[in-house]
Task: structure prediction
Amino acid sequence: MSQQAETLQELADQKYKYGFVTDIESEFAPKGLNEEIVRFISGKKNEPGWMLEWRLDAYRRWLTMTEPKWARVDYPPIDFQDSYYFAAPKNDSDKPKNLDEVDPELLKTYEKLGIPLSEQKMLAGVAVDAVFDSVSVATTFKAKLEEVGVIFCPLSEALAKHPELVRKYLGTVVPVTDNYYATLNSAVFSEGSFVYVPEGVRCPMELSTYFRINASKTGQFERTLIIAEKNSYVSYLEGCTAPMRDENQLHAAVVELVALEGAEIKYSTVQNWYPGDENGKGGIYNFVTKRGDCRGANSKISWTQVETGSAITWKYPSCILRGDNSVGEFYSIAIANNCQQADTGTKMIHLGKNTKSRIISKGISAGRAQNTYRGLVSVHAKADGARNFTQCDSLLMGSRCGAHTVPYIESHNPGAIVEHEATTSKISDDQLFYCLSRGIGTEEAVALIVNGFCREVLQQLPMEFAVEAQKLVGISLEGSVG
Amino acid sequence: MGDAISTGSLLETATGRNTGAADWAEALRDRSRAEFAALGLPNRRLEAWRYSDLARALSETVRETGSLPTCHDMPGAYSAIFENGILDETQSSFREAGALPLRQILADPASPFVGHIGGVNPQDDHPLLSLNTALMEEGIVLRVPAGTTLEQPLHLRFDWQADTIGGRHLRVLILLEEGAKATLVETHGGSPSFATIVTEVRLAKNSELTHVRLERLGSSGRQSAMTLGEIGASARYRAFYLSEGGHFSRHEALLKLAGEEAQADIEGASLATGTRHCDNTTIITHAVPHTTSQQSFRGVLSGRARGAYQGCIRVAPDAQGTDARQMSRALLLSHRAEAATKPELEIFADDVKCAHGATIGELDADALFFLRARGIPEAEALSILIEAFFSESLAMIENDHLRGLATDAVQDWLSSHASEVSSVE
Result:
């Protein structure tokens, strides 16, 4: 095992590949958080008055709230006044119309990240609305989307062009009062994506956004709102990498999905933010509120996530199954290595008749990491015929990590069937031996076994992501067996 | 019948009683009293009490509906009879088993049990444990010497037929020395206005305890019981818990597998109708390598009953080779019944096998149809299916006599509640 251990050690020592800082002048709001900052952000965005009021209301509520402490994560207290709440690349007044007009520094960043923006047109037909720090700088394939009537734009643009839509749906899935971080986000969110798919339209391409946190000490507070009208379909991809930082950065995003009758939304995430170094120094604090509302009958919302980054992950993408026969799905891979802490899971709230939900969660802990699945399946009294299946599997690598499962199952309806199963295991020596004896190297063998462990989830990802995710799963873990 | 009880009224009781206890016991009580004063009665804002709001249940005045049930019988056993929380020595035969009343122990300044009482698998921030220690007066202490087997089960009978103002708090301590074997049967009947019962169990190397709890409380009964256990090397704890719920009924099994090859097996059954509440909570800590635990809890809930199962498996760092399994199944027979399950795993070691499963659903419609098609009336068909549902649990009880006792308890419940069970809705 010692030779393996060495190989693995090398892998474990790999530095975060995507850690670099692009030198671009940022325009900051002054440090700290107060009503003036909220007004400043709103002013910067040229927002309508009601939006400012909404933000201020959220800010005032936030002041009365306390940070949630129930998650199994441990971190020093966050000084919310010691952070910048707005940073925008300077030249945002005249937005580029094509790639040539984009700041070449930015393009270089994308290239380093491996986002093939310039190749995008030839590739899988993915339109990218890249959020760099807080302002979106390039949007492609817009024309094609406009043809079918799909609106895919930064939230600030949507506020200007389609205020009635934003006003109708914003905050209806994750209300201003929802939780500490969501309320904070409501007050200071600076950018995000807006998607509107009209009735009967099947979005012709996978929509994708890359969020990046770049300027030092700026919390990023995106807000995403996706609305799928009757009988429409949209698949949305979100991927993240961030430069290396020594100080913890706060990230509190909110994602709201609304699926009306017969609509389907598929939301996929690959999250690979800087997790901190092997001693737990630095890394992103990722406190995210994601929720989908299956408002209409026969609607479907599917969450798929691959969480490999962040020092702390606090994230529970949920589905409110309000419409009869609606379906919620949650597929998750959460990998925690070194000193990472992940507390993630989902909530499935069954309100409508014959609603169905499926939860597949794969947690992998290595090094000194703590990985927790925390989930709720709740069946209300009127949800006749509701059905849930949950499977939570944990894989432990190394004797100093922890894997925890905290499922809550509450049923108020005798006609509902709720099933939960969970297992915990390690990579068995037999499996490893089997691979090694066939000439497969340790590193490959571990990647193979882990990928096998996660297969059910990886299969759910769109092609573009599946490849990246598979690599990520392999790389972020191998360091820890031995 | 129970009147409102609050943290304050309980603390007043604590100052009002003087029982002539020895200094060590008074010190233990004082410390626990301070802890309870700081923590107060638990409510649902505390994670561990999410499905059981004791503060609220005690703030309500409740009236008994129907006649008061009595304890299950256990002929031929060494007995300790508690009438309304007071030990009745004249009817009891526990001294034949070598057991002693708690009062006697608490009054003895040089008791060999100092350090054991309140010392088995101690818990931090457990309000009811502190309350019980602060107010304990009655109870039983049993030590079974090394290598001996207690011939008959020790039967603790807790019968609550009259009002006990302010509640009663009982404590049981069972020490099995190396290689000792014993059977402990607890039966609970009637309606305590508020009772806490703590059973401390310390099992030395190679010892074996079989623990049967049969709870048949009235609809206004309010009881919170705890079994605290420390299970030594190669020792075995086997348990069967049956509960019919009450206005408030909770049992916590807080067990620590403290020696290698220690083993704990728990089968639980709960059956509740009406507006009853029934909570089974377990925390099993695998503290050392190569320990095994197995739990299986089944519940049937009808009417507007609320059932909860919270089971936590903790695997300490370095407790390699742990094998822990946990299963919970709940059957909902009515639209207004509620079941909540929280099967939790906390794992800090990698070479472990831990699995849990949980299901909530209704009786299989096909099975019901099969029986109905053969001319079996619906109520009877339901009874048959519920009995079958519990039969796997009952089959796990190795001792024929105890299995018979438990099976009778389930059947009793089925026959006396047949009408409530079959009136679905």
About this structure: The mean pLDDT of chain B is 91.
